[in-house]
Amino acid sequence: MSSDSTVKKIGVLTGGGDSSGINAVLHGICLEARKLGIEVVGFREGWRGLIEGSCTPLSFDMTIKEVDRSGTILKTSRTNPYRIASAQGKIAKTIKELKLDGLIAIGGNDTLTVASNLYDDLKIPVVGIPQTIDNDVPGTEYCVGFDTAVHNVVEAIRNVRATCDSHQEDIVVEVMGRQSGWIAAVAGLTAGAEFILLPELSFDSQKLVDALKERHANGFYSNVIVVAEGVKGIDHTKIEAGTDAFGNVMLAGIGLGLRDYLQDKLNKKTRAIVLSYIQRGGRPTSYEVFTALGFGRSAVKALFEGKTDLMIAFRDGTLRPVSLSLAQGTRKVDAELVEMVKELTLL
Fold first, then answer.
1. Which of 103, 104, 237, 330 is the most interior residue, by most CB within 10 Å?
2. What is the CATH number of the domain that holds 82?
3. Which domain holds residue 229?
4. DSSP string covering 17-37, please?
């Protein structure tokens, strides 16, 4: 395709936690790049690959076979260039040596914040794509990976409920969500959980105990309690597992802690399941793949048109470019959805 665009070669990386849908984004990128005559290079292991110059060519023929596969064929890491000496200089060198005309960064809050900072510091033409099962990147209403994660959690709740009903036992289901409870809210409501605990809501452990006692007294001995990993109110001193390269607390185990607490207070066996990576894996939903393809194609179009320092956002049912700086911070669960949780559950 002939054009006056100077964009002939671009790089792409996937950083932070993986999800289902990333490979579909990569395929969308290669689809549009093939149409526009752009060469694509993929960097291995996120920002680490860009720092070390570790890369591989990407093409339509490579990505079409991976479009509905979970994870990322480029691999990923939580590398933070701003915590590595001389990393910015090495990134600039890699881009110059490979003669890249632009970069697409796929990831969550941390990955996109780095992309925004690198644009400010090095003026690298960059476009970001929000990808995190937490769905908490500001500036967009949807992040790649969220729909499949919700589907996985809903299926898990449905599967364990049958056994818990049979044994008349309550079960705590721990899902991801450090600072926002999107997965807990949407999956919990969809699966009909009796109790949903979000970081956005204050949590009174005694109130939960009292509500469960009332349920048991009325003959409802099996209840599902969905809890986001970042909920406060249960002793976190034993579940915080250090911090990552971006300073984020790596939480683990609130579900088990809550189970032990409830068993002690109710004198009744309580189950717990920590879904962990089960939420991230599995074949992406059809909606996930279709939307991810659009994210990838839109990012390439933006670079081709000379646009930069942007994030492709999903807003009001359409994909549109917004300022990349909007991706910094955390998007909390919408007030309307929080109210639904309060109205439709029992706590």
1. 104
2. 3.40.50.450
3. 146-280
4. S--TTHHHHHHHHHHHHHHHT
